[in-house]
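Predict structure. Chain length: 363.
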Amino acid sequence: MSDAKLTDGTPMLTAPDAVCPAHAPKDHPRVPPGRVGVLLANLGTPDNYDYWSMRRYLNEFLSDRRVIDYAPWKWQPLLQLVILSKRPFTSGANYKSIWNHDKGESPLATITKAQTAKITEAMKARYGDDVMVDYCMRYGNPSTKSKVRAMVAAGCQKILFFPLYPQYAGATTATANDQFFRALMAEKWQPAVRTAAAYFDHPAYIEALAQSVERAYGAMEVKPDLLVASYHGMPQRYLTEGDPYHCQCQKTTRLLRERLGWDESRINSTFQSLFGPEEWLKPYTVDEVARLAKAGTKRIAVISPAFSADCIETLEEINGEIRESFEHAGGESFTYIPCLNDDDAHIAALSAVIEENLKGWIA
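Prediction complete.
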């Protein structure tokens, strides 16, 4: 691919299979064959767990007005002078404890790459070379902008943007879409685009969740007394302002329970990852598991239906802080059921969502 640049400095790539259109002058820019792009998007990951890598990542994340919507004049001094002076050390230590040292990347990066590879295989089997699949991160690398540029350069005249969040939230799905649209602003010839809707109630997704629970329970001699579905939290205020996340989480839990054939006493929904002084969605997972233990529930399993891939919130927070809260309160058996990751049933569910969204674009 060429190393020419757009006016903002972004590389102006040219696909190796690009050709001069028929009947065009010989000096006409080469044009790659038309394709449909599928761009998967996840939250993001620091490049490393050292102080400066963590600071860059946290600064980008916590400066997003979709995530922290306080007025910048009030929030930025606190963020830059206080939070980013200390938090990179603690967050870096947490990342180091789960880091994929063999590949030099976070587990989220490793898993997202594996998911992309399997979905690429599924799309190739379905559509041949007419569909290109890649992934990007909202924060960190690979950036959304770089991947949009690469897809356009490869001839993607249509792009399906697929945020890998089962439930919609302004702080996840919406900010990923925002970044995608910003990336399109840099393109001279914009592709036609679609964004995939949340898939919190998709039958294939619910089936994949249920199978993961059944596998985990089937491997235990003594079954848990309760399954805790722990979702990432958000300020309670966001719910009252119209964000549907809480309702979609509750529906996911209900559909999972119905698929498993359980009554309401065997599963509940909680919310984790509190940040800041506001009241967040309740019950808080860390407090609820302690309450359960004190009330006599000695064996629990925890699942994270809001995460498409295991990450710092599941591998460190659930298996660290939340496990400790349960055990310190008298709990005896704590089982974390991994995210769906690149499980075949999950890949089938994601592929089904993609195929539904590509209808009318490709046969």
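Summary: The two ends are 29 Å apart (CA to CA).
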